[in-house]
Design a protein that fits this description.
Layout: E1 2-3, E2 9-10, E3 24-30, H1 36-46, E4 54-60, E5 65-71, H2 74-77, H3 80-85, E6 90-96, E7 111-115, E8 118-128, H4 131-142, H5 148-151, H6 157-164, H7 173-180, E9 186-193, E10 198-202, E11 211-215, E12 218-222, H8 225-230, E13 234-238, E14 243-248, E15 251-256, E16 264-265, H9 267-272, E17 278-279, E18 282-283, H10 284-298, E19 305-308, H11 314-324, E20 332-334, H12 347-352, E21 358-360, H13 362-365, E22 369-374, H14 381-392, E23 397-402, H15 430-437, E24 441-444, H16 447-454, E25 461-462, H17 464-467, H18 505-511
Parallel strand pairs: 16-25, 19-22, 22-23, 23-24
Antiparallel strand pairs: 1-2, 3-6, 3-12, 4-5, 4-6, 7-8, 8-9, 9-10, 10-14, 11-12, 11-13, 14-15, 17-18, 20-21
Helix pairs in contact: 4-6, 10-11, 10-16
Length: 513
């Protein structure tokens, strides 16, 4: 985990090197008699890898909803005092990486809004593609003068969903959701609640994971199965694409708001999800080991040792070693604590680059022909620095193997890659990339091999970042983008859609009640 400019964490090994950024984690539970805020805290702790910019929890005691959220990691945002104040039998939690709307306190989740029948607190994983259309729909239904989160400077697609959940007089939140959800396009795994019930919904493509679990005295909904494990919930099933559920004192009710058109994100298997997660019955760890085995079949090489780039490359490296018969070894030691400091590295330390995070085991590397396995290459700067370091440590040869195909296209469904112009695989062949990196050879797994390792049909997966074939239609370029709602053309200070720049945390809270 590496230090970003704002002092929080991502998966990069070089300062200022931006790799693929995880999207968000959502968690919700209905559990009378339990300490729901603390359960939500631990659930979010298990989902921290999906977003490290902000965290929040909302709870309800049946009469009112309380929300506590701030910038930072789950462990930085919450303490015992905050959690003890969040009482009730219902909770919704969120940890965020920004995909639509900037990294500001105003954009932290869960969002809060008024409805025709009460209040809604909402957490969203994914990214909508028809945001511009939804801006116009909100204006059409509720007027140009914005209210709620939008009026307080929230510039996310999540705030637009919250605004649309206002609903018509006399309508329940469930009735409003069943009317609004079919109008949303793109990726959305939603967990939300009013004063009395927990709700969840998943887009018809099922781009992002969402699972249902059972407690002795309640229910849990979460982005990934480890969040169920950590709170002692048993796995029941996935929330189906196009499905809406309600959980309250009368039990669980399921409704379909759209026909499923499965297109789950294959990059969840490659990188995004925790290795101990299961997606559609397939262990992510097993899928990554299988990717390594297929990689060894497709790109064999004579070598002395297979080493992973910790930690993301480890399962695939194990698979490569098993299939090739080349011994597996730990050639790199990772400093787990660098990146957890808010002290910025000096220019001298920046020049050391990757050594802040990894250090070679020289006695293991010296005089050896190495196979170095990682999950993906984005810009290539990390791999270039790593290869240079391995050669300085005495490696005779360095052969790079990547357990995903070349990343060539941006994601519009909840992953923030570097821009297309910055992706090293655009315009360069594998041999040219190997030369650029200083590697003796480079091999990517084939698209077919990666998909086979997932055990899912190709027709039910989204691989757009590798192929450029998007399963959900995209709007024109001027009607999409991370900062769409912060553009002057999409709003102004009077209608609340223009970004209101205020301080984060307590300063923002004082200015925005």
């Amino acid at each position: 985990m590496a230090l970003r400019g704002d002092g929080r964490l991502n998966h990069d090994l070089l300062p200022d090197e931006k790799g693929p950024q995880d999207e968000c984690g959502v968690f919700g539970l209905w559990a009378p008699g339990e300490e729901v805020a603390k359960l939500a805290y631990f659930g979010l702790y298990a989902l921290q890898h999906r977003g490290q910019e902000s965290a929040g929890i909302a709870t309800s005691n049946g009469e009112q909803i309380l929300v506590y959220k701030d910038m930072g990691l789950v462990s930085q945002v919450f303490d015992e005092t905050a959690l003890n104040a969040l009482t009730g039998h219902l909770a919704v939690g969120h940890c965020r990486y920004s995909t639509t709307g900037g990294n500001t306190w105003e954009n932290a989740q869960p969002t809060l809004g008024a409805t025709a029948s009460g209040t809604v607190a909402l957490a969203h994983n994914g990214n909508l593609t028809n945001t511009a259309d939804l801006v116009e729909l909100v204006a059409e239904r509720y007027g140009a003068q914005r209210r709620g989160e939008l009026a307080r400077g929230n510039t996310t697609d999540t705030a637009l969903i919250t605004a649309l959940f206002t609903g018509d007089d006399g309508h329940s939140l469930e009735e409003t959701a069943m009317e609004v959800l079919p109008r949303l396009e793109g990726a959305f795994s939603l967990v939300f609640m009013d004063e009395h019930a927990l709700y969840a919904a998943r887009d018809p493509q099922g781009v992002r994971p969402l699972v249902l679990g059972r407690l002795d005295r309640g229910w849990v909904v979460a982005s990934e199965t480890p969040a169920l494990d950590i709170v002692g919930a048993s796995y029941v099933r996935e929330i189906e694409p196009g499905e809406f559920i309600r959980i309250d004192q009368d039990g669980l009710v399921s409704r379909k708001f759209a026909e499923p058109k499965r297109a789950g994100c294959v990059f969840e298997y490659v990188y995004l999800a925790r290795p101990d997660t299961s997606i559609r019955g397939r262990s992510v760890h097993a899928a990554r080991v299988e990717m390594g085995k297929i990689l060894a079949q497709e790109h064999p090489v004579e070598a002395d040792l297979v080493i992973p780039v910790p930690e993301s490359g480890t399962p695939a490296a194990v698979g490569y070693a098993q299939e090739s018969g080349i011994p597996f070894g730990q050639g790199l030691t990772k400093n787990s604590y660098v990146g957890r400091t808010f002290i910025q590295p000096s220019d001298t330390l920046r020049q050391l680059g990757i050594r802040l995070k990894l250090n070679p085991l020289r006695e293991v590397i010296r005089g050896r022909k190495l196979v170095v396995v990682d999950d993906s290459i984005v810009r290539g700067n990390t791999q270039r620095a790593l290869i240079r370091m391995l050669r300085e440590a005495g490696a005779d040869e360095v052969h790079v193997r990547i357990s995903s195909p070349p990343v060539k296209w941006p994601c519009f469904y909840g992953i923030d890659f570097a821009s297309r112009a910055e992706l090293i695989a655009n315009g360069l062949s594998a041999d040219e990339i190997a030369s650029s990196l200083g590697a003796d050879s480079l091999g990517y797994i084939s698209l077919e091999g990666m998909i086979a390792a997932s055990n899912q049909p190709a027709s039910e997966l989204c691989a757009a970042c590798f192929t450029g074939e998007y399963p959900i239609e995209l709007p024109s370029e001027e009607r999409r983008g991370k900062h769409l709602l912060e553009m002057p053309t999409m709003g102004n200070p009077d209608d609340g859609l223009h970004s209101l720049t205020v301080g984060a945390g307590g300063a923002g809270a004082l200015q925005h009640p």
